[in-house]
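Course assignment 3, question 2. Fill in each field.
Student: A.L.
Task: Predict the tertiary structure for the chain below.
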Amino acid sequence: ISTDRSYLVMGSALSALSKANAKAAMTEAKKLEKEPSSKMKSGIAQLYATQGGKDELAFFEELLNSTKLTGLDAIYGLNSMTIFMSRQTPEIQEKALALYKYQNANGGIYSKMFLPQNVAYLIAAIKDGMQKTNAEIEAYELNKQPAYANEARKKLKLQQLIVKDLEAFETELGAGEVIEH
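Answer field:
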């Protein structure tokens, strides 16, 4: 990763390293974030999708609020951001809508084509999270832990708001211009 300047080699090495040592791969990926290659950025996004946490949000915000990804890399980047968001807290998930809207307005044809599927995937993931939050609330109430139950209710309320906003955007996408093949 550090000695070869071929983006193909670097990307392949990063992918292989992530399977053997995810922590080391994350360290190497941080060093490569500023590389200009669309393929490299896409590869980093794919790693962060499954391994990243709140610290990687800035990478996705910079990447998806730009047109740095081209061609199929744009799909990989969008899909990676969606998977990343599906694993995060509601406080981070609520930032997805702005990224989706930017891609809808400024992204390439591939991003726009796959945007509805990504939005639907994130909605489903958050709804799954809502079921878990409801179970947490019930458990806290059963165990007479009202402070924890109230915190979980706040989390549920935020999840509900995010889903409502994403569903409204999903409706906008469905009412938008149909791309003819």
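Instructor remarks: The radius of gyration is 18 Å. The chain has a mean pLDDT of 90.
Grade: pending
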